[in-house]
Predict the structure.
Amino acid sequence: MINRRQILRRTAGLGAACIAAPVWAQSASRIVLGQSAATSGPAAALGTQFRLGAMLHFDRVNAKGGINGRTIDLQTLDDGYEPDRCAENTRKLIDGGAFALFGYIGTPTSLAALPLATQAKVPFLAPFTGAEALRAPFNRYAFHVRASYFDETGEIVKQSAAIGIKRIGVFHQNDSYGKAGLDGVTRALKPLGLEPAGLGTVERNTVDVDAAVKAILAGKPDAIVQISAYKSCAAFIRAARKTGFGGTFYNVSFVGTKALADELKQDARGVVVSQVMPFPYAPVSQLSGEYLAAGKAALGDKFEPNYSSMEGYVAARVVAEGLRRAGGAGNADALIAAMESLRDYNLGGFFVDFSAGDHTGSKYVDLTILTADGHVRR
């Protein structure tokens, strides 16, 4: 049985004890996965929840003897969602002997890390980002479990157009993540003969949105797609509504659904969020049921399911299977070949499909809507 207190310490204490833990090279008894993630600062909920979900599975695997007799050791370093800190962490993890990098949080951070992983020939697995710049051109060392931002924004524009919404503004973070989302919206609008109706930006890890509200609303949009973190998106929604804006707000999955709902409270009503993972709040699929059972077994009544930890759980399931198929070889080439053997792999209603020429495992996208009491409806 997994120790409940151990799980709580590993997640709640990430800002201190966990990230200070030394990174040791893999050995005959353990497989070290390295992660750089925001576990402090305005995006902290994303990193802590993703890691919690991953540990739900990794701890269960370890409790049953590990992978081919070796335990999985996930070493997490805090980067505060800042690329420079992420690059520094990545060098430490690679130099410390991490077998693979796993579950990096965000586009600008992942873009800082991937070249380092590629140069060192270290697999870069399941980053929590849908940026096309991490997927094209093809990189042999990078594997993506989730759908892309092109997939998400394409579905948002498709659904908006279907109900007659054509004037769509874009509020985006002023970095590679924001640009990835903006490119996705622009790409989806082009076949309709449309372009964004108003643009505005916010700096990463800030909530200074007043200029963006003014710039976007000047374009008279009927809906606004938001490509930023949950605190700045919440600040924008409140500020725009105060001006009288009554249109629909759309967010991509990286915003962190629960984090956004918690930040907005009753103001969450009617906000739409695209999702790239199965519904985590009820056992509507075999995978959802297993995720909920794992969380309940580990944390009891303190477990709060959400999409971010579901993504960590799914990512861990996929990577653990890849490690199992790699056998005892203990090298990057064996792991890459094993991951590429996951063809139409069924995790219980959610499929991942890799090949030697395609390392994007899923194109699954769903749209959900938030309620005033913090719930999520499909």
In short: Residues 44-63 form the longest helix (20 residues). The two ends are 33 Å apart (CA to CA). The chain has two domains: 4-147+281-363, 149-275. Residues 15-24 have pLDDT under 50 and may be disordered.
